[in-house]
């Protein structure tokens, strides 16, 4: 887990990269709070008069309990008698005055029983989370009055009169940050924290559609609305001079429905019969269905791509249908059969997966007829049970869960540079007659970027989708048997050939989107295959079709799709690179099909992704026997492979020079062939490299002429379909089949090449580590975290936990440049590691926050719990276990008083 400062900066930087829009408060409320009706002018005036008469607003027009901080202390903090905490703790009184005045003046609309949240200032206390990075603190919070955790879970918590109430991150509806003054440094600090809160709340809470935050510097306030699409923010307004919008803010956050506050009402937390926290999801089978179907989770399969704000937030669960629901776990009846539930966000104009799949299957059936070939092809598709936009019931029917695009009149928000918030220039040299005085003025500090200099991305609304599948599968990331892996690649090539013949692109070919399904309907614990018959019991299935589209199709926004490790180099550079006799820079200025503005994804780009999957298996993994050889041979092999892995498999969506050169230049491919031949000997795995030259020939044959082209509806020009040949598909399938056959006769196991500081490879990560199943193939597992010894003192700080970033680069990067006009979308492997669903030892569950006041021996032990807690909480718990704990003393994760 990365350091919290790095975490905050990373998310703020994403937002600053064209993903934030600013507008005035009236437009902000209208756009992002459409269900909330602001008070009419007469009612607002009456409410303000009530506040004045009660003394909540003083004669100067300021909030009596929260006067403006004295500005003359702003420059010299050492003389400042105020502290941020002591000043803004009075915000609680201000909010309470507003609520009471509203309930007195507008009684029909506001009443104590209609409150959905409560407000509190608690800057020195952490919130309790289900995921890593739990040591989050916010200056103030709006928190649900009724917790999202089941009563049985809360009833088991022992509290004392001196204990502060536990606040769970999942129950936060708005997090606020305060500063006494409006310096650039203060503004940047609040922005960093507010994005840290938003990202952490999104990742922690499975049932979250949007996150509200707010910042106040001095008396200037901004309201932030974070979604999977973008962030909207109000222009700065003064809480004394513009009381109306501050009052509306308080009323909205106190009385709005939980759905309006960003809580998904179709997700609930429940306890299972083992007293472990689970989730229930409601799914409406069709848009007209009035009754929801409910599924309850058993295991979390994947959520790696939900780590950042602007992403698809793909979460995949092993679930079972709820036949009879009940609050008491023992009275609840679940189906025996496991299903897979996928929860994610896509652009609001993207068709549902079921609709896309139906279009593909209809075309295939028309092309192939209804015979044996058609039935064979049909086996390679997921069987979808339910699919569509998430909806929930309200008084006037079902409401779809969507987040809007920014209003048309909003503007790009300008962020200050963190290292130089004010954009200040260097001071003039004091010695002006020296040799370097003139030169010294030529180097300038980086100034704050202007909003007009940031690429204005076309931001679109998104919809929340949920899909359930019949088959439980294993993704290709987790396959360590080379015979089985290359057998699967043969079938991937066949599937893509069928796609080409019906004029369809997948546009996201990766090991996480092609799955292995066993014909027995189960997932055998052993993946060993001894003969062709056993191998062919595994069927490769194509999934995640949201980005698939007809070749002669396209939308107004056509982002770079695909996982960077497996994306074709032409797609990464957005230009055709194989036109004979013409350099790339000349191609940039050429007219017609070769101009970048006319670049378009084609069939060969899907196929190149399969080639990268094969290279990934041969370079980032290797034979366990080879890596274990003595006399330094294993280390030498690992170092050679690590070098290529660093150069070729970069998380940057735009690729690398070495990656481009490998595909474009024969000498580079020959060098790689020599390396792999030296490592793998008689194995035909090095013949993967020969496919690069075949692919080069296919690209050159395609791009040597512009005579045959087709104009798309979105204005792009593409090559005609009949220019794409089958030869390269056949060649690739034959090559993979030979490799698979070789390893049938010479069984082997491929494991991740260990990092340079690791002595020996491990096939699987330790069961105690809380990583997602889809992460396991990406990176060698780091050592289990352990607390550092601390010195005892009167005010002992909690021990710091030694952490290593175990998140694989290819998982992290998938969310870095997600869903923008020229960016990739992210998602990890899914449905995939469902082997964990049938193998308890490898399963991963989200955990309920633990009660520090309850004896450790009485808490239910959840697998992997020690590493799902934050480092501070874990250190405190381990210390408490080794010492006699003082009754009634709460462990908050901070210094005790």
Describe this structure in words.
The chain is α+β, with helices and mostly antiparallel strands. The chain has a domain at 473-749: Transferase(Phosphotransferase), domain 1, CATH 1.10.510. Helix content is 31%, strand content 16%. The chain is built from 26 helices and 28 strands. Strands 1, 2, 3, 4, 5, 6, 7, 8 and 18 form a nine-stranded mixed β-sheet that branches. Strands 9, 10, 11, 12, 13, 14, 17 and 19 form an eight-stranded antiparallel β-sheet that branches. Strands 20-22-23 form a three-stranded antiparallel β-sheet, with helices on one face. Strand 5 (211-217) and strand 6 form a beta hairpin. Helix 3 (41-53) packs across helix 5 (91-105) and helix 9 (353-368) runs antiparallel to helix 10 (372-378). The two termini are 29 Å apart. Residues 155-162, 432-452, 581-595, 758-874 and 884-897 have low confidence and may be disordered. This is Fungal-type protein kinase domain-containing protein. InterPro entries: Kinase-like_dom_sf, Pkinase_fungal, Tyr_kinase_AS. Residues 161-614 form the Fungal-type protein kinase domain.
């Amino acid at each position: 887990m990365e350091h919290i400062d790095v975490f905050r900066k990373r998310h703020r930087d994403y937002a600053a990269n064209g993903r934030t829009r600013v507008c005035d408060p009236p437009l902000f409320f209208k756009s992002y709070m459409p269900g909330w009706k602001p008070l009419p002018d007469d009612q607002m005036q009456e409410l303000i008069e009530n506040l004045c008469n009660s003394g909540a607003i003083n004669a100067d027009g300021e909030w009596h309990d929260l006067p403006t901080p004295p500005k003359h202390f702003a420059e010299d903090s050492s003389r400042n008698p105020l502290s941020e905490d002591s000043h803004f703790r009075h915000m609680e009184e201000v909010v309470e005055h507003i609520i009471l005045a509203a309930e007195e003046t507008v009684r029909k609309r506001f009443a104590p029983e209609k409150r959905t949240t409560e407000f509190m200032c608690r800057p020195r206390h952490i919130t309790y989370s289900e995921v890593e990075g739990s040591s989050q603190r916010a200056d103030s919070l709006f928190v649900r009055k009724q917790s999202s955790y089941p009563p049985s879970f809360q009833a088991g918590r022992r509290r004392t009169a001196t204990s502060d109430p536990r606040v769970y991150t999942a129950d936060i509806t708005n997090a606020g940050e305060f500063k006494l003054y409006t310096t650039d440094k203060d503004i940047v600090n609040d922005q960093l924290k507010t994005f840290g809160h938003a990202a952490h709340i999104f990742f922690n809470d499975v049932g979250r559609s949007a996150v509200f935050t707010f910042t106040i510097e001095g008396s200037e306030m901004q309201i932030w609305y974070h979604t999977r699409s973008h962030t909207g923010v109000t222009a700065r307004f003064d809480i004394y001079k513009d009381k109306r919008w501050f009052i509306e803010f308080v009323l909205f956050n106190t009385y709005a429905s939980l759905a309006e506050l960003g809580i998904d009402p179709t997700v609930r937390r429940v306890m299972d019969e083992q007293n472990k926290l689970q989730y229930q999801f409601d799914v409406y089978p069709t848009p007209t269905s009035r009754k929801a179907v409910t599924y309850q989770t058993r295991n979390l399969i994947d959520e790696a791509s939900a780590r950042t704000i602007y992403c698809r937030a793909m979460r995949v669960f092993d679930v079972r249908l709820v036949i009879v629901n009940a609050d008491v776990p023992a009275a609840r009846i679940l189906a025996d059969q496991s299903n897979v539930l996928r929860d994610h966000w896509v652009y609001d104009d993207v068709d549902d997966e079921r609709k896309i799949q139906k279009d593909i299957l209809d075309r295939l059936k028309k092309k192939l007829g209804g015979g044996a070939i058609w039935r064979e092809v049909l086996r390679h598709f997921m069987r979808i049970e339910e699919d569509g936009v998430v909806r929930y019931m309200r008084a006037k029917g079902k409401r779809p869960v969507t987040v809007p695009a920014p209003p048309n009149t909003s503007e790009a928000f300008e962020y200050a540079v963190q290292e130089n918030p004010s954009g200040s220039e260097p001071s003039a040299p004091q010695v002006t007659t020296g040799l370097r005085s003139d030169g010294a003025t030529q180097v300038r500090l980086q100034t704050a970027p202007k909003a007009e200099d940031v690429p204005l991305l076309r931001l679109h609304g998104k919809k929340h989708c949920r899909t359930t599948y019949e088959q439980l599968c294993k993704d290709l990331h987790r396959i360590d048997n080379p015979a089985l892996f290359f057998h699967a690649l043969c079938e991937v090539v066949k599937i893509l050939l069928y796609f080409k013949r019906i004029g369809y692109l997948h546009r996201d070919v990766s090991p996480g989107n092609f799955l292995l399904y066993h014909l027995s309907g189960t997932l055998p614990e052993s993946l060993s295959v001894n003969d062709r018959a056993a191998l062919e019991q595994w069927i490769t299935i194509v999934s995640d079709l949201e980005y698939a589209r007809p070749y002669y199709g396209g939308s107004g926004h056509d982002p770079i799709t695909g996982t960077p490790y497996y994306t074709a180099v032409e797609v990464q550079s957005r230009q055709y690179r194989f036109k004979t006799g013409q350099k790339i820079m000349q191609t940039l200025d050429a007219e017609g099909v070769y101009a970048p503005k006319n670049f378009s994804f084609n069939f060969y780009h899907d196929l190149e992704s399969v080639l990268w999957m094969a290279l990934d298996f041969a370079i980032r993994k290797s034979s366990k026997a080879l890596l274990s050889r003595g006399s330094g041979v294993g280390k030498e092999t690992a170092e050679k492979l690590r070098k290529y892995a660093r150069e070729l498999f970069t998380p940057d969506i735009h690729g690398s020079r070495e990656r481009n050169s490998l595909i474009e230049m024969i000498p580079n491919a020959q060098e790689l062939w020599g390396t792999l031949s030296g490592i793998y000997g008689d194995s035909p795995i090095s013949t993967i490299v020969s496919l690069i030259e075949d692919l080069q020939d296919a690209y050159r044959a395609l791009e040597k002429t512009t005579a045959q082209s087709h104009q798309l509806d979105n204005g792009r020009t593409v090559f005609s379909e009949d220019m794409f040949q089958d030869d390269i598909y056949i060649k690739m399938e034959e090559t993979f089949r030979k490799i698979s056959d070789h390893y049938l006769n010479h069984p082997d196991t491929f494991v991740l090449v260990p990092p340079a500081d690791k002595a020996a490879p491990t096939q699987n990560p330790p069961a105690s580590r809380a990583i997602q199943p889809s992460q396991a193939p990406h990176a060698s597992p780091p050592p289990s975290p352990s607390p550092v010894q601390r010195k005892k003192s009167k005010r002992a700080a909690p021990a710091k936990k030694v952490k290593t970033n175990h998140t694989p680069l290819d998982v992290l990067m998938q969310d870095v440049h997600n869903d923008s006009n020229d960016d990739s979308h992210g998602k990890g492997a899914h449905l995939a590691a469902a082997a964990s669903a049938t193998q308890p030892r490898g399963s991963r569950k989200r955990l309920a926050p633990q009660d520090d006041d309850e004896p450790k021996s009485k808490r239910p032990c959840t697998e992997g719990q020690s590493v799902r807690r934050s480092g501070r909480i874990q250190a405190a718990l381990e210390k408490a276990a080794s010492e006699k704990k003082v009754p009634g003393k709460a462990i908050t994760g901070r210094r005790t008083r």
